[in-house]
Amino acid sequence: MTQTEVGTRTGRRVSEARERLLRTAGQLFYAEGIHTVGVDRLVAESKVTNATFYRHFRSKEELAVAYIDSVDQAIRTGIDSLAAADVPPDGILRGIGASLVEQIRSPGYRGCAFLNAAAEFPDPDHPVHRAVVRHRAWFLETVTGLFAGITAAEAEHAGRHFVMLRDGAMSAGYLGDPVLAGETLLRGIDGLLRIHAARGRDEHPAAAPAQAPAAAPTAIDTACSPPGA
Questions:
Q1: CA-to-CA distance for 216 and 182, rounded, in angstroms?
Q2: pLDDT digits (tens, 9 = 90+) for 48-87
Q3: How far apart are CA 206 and CA 203, in angstroms?
Q4: pLDDT band at 218 (very low <50, low <70, confident <90, very high)
Q5: What radius of gyration, in Å, describes the C-alpha atoms of the chain?
Q6: What is the distance between the alpha carbons of residues 4 and 25, in angstroms, rounded to a whole number?
Q7: How far is Cα 180 from Cα 202, in angstroms, rounded to an integer?
Q8: H or E element at residue 60
Q9: I want to staple 46 with a disulfide (CB 3.0 to 4.6 A). Which of 24, 37, 152, 228 is the partner?
């Protein structure tokens, strides 16, 4: 079996067949829903055998968890790349917003992969649901930390507000006008950042005047859908 690369989360080598299965599953699960896509179709479109499928995944639900985790990992990588490039916290938050807008306006957009999966698996004890909750807990913690990097004052409130803006925009972009949803999201993020920065100036009035908002980075991938979907 051809080995291609080291897995990002487990350190185990990942086979080419597993990659094809995961890539195909990501595209089909996102476009059509996890419940509607059967193993036979996944096997056929991935060009593998049933034995190969079950060698890598004990069930379709295990593959669904791997799909959610792959989208989660892509978002983590996108944010980490900005942090490694010394982009300031407000620039990273704006970059996340810009990435979401790009996704909302892209062909084939069907909403947030995480929210869609949670709707299909409402049982909080189900592995797919737990994978979604893990991602959302990490995302909230991450954006809260970015707001705290601007000022600690009410950073938790700002983080929750940001996540709600994101959730609303991703739903509105699918159910309504994606252009308006994207514009509203960016305005909301801009307003939230201005208010949060003002809290810091109120706490530290002797500090230097606030700088102009950072331009939104363009080279970031924080889309809540699988690559290629």
A1: 14
A2: 999 999 999 999 999 999 999 999 999 999 999 988 998 9
A3: 9
A4: very low
A5: 19
A6: 19
A7: 33
A8: helix 60-84
A9: 24
* Adjacent-strand bridge partners of 6: 13
Please report, to the nearest 10 degrees, the dihedral formed by the alpha carbons of residues 222, 219, 106, 172 taken in order.
Answer: 50
pLDDT attached to residue 221: 53
- Residues 224 and 97 sit within 8 Å (Cβ to Cβ): no
Token representation of residue 196: 């949060």
- Identity of the amino acid at 141: E
Q: Which tokens in the block code for residue 71? A: 């989208």
178-203 vs 155-175: helix crossing angle, rounded to 10: 170
CB 22, CB 67: distance < 8 Å: yes
β-bridge pairing 13-15 and 3-6: antiparallel
Give Cα separations from 75 to 19, 43, 101, 113, 136 (angstroms): 18, 27, 14, 12, 11
Give the type of residue at 22.
L
Model confidence over 130-159: pLDDT tens digits?
A: 999 999 999 999 999 999 999 998 999 999
Per-residue burial over 176-186, b if 16 or more Cβ lie within 10 Å, else e, is eebeebbebbb
Q: Which two tokens stand for residue 108?
A: 């084939």
Rounded CA-CA distance 195/11 in Å is 42
The token duo for 69 is 């985790």
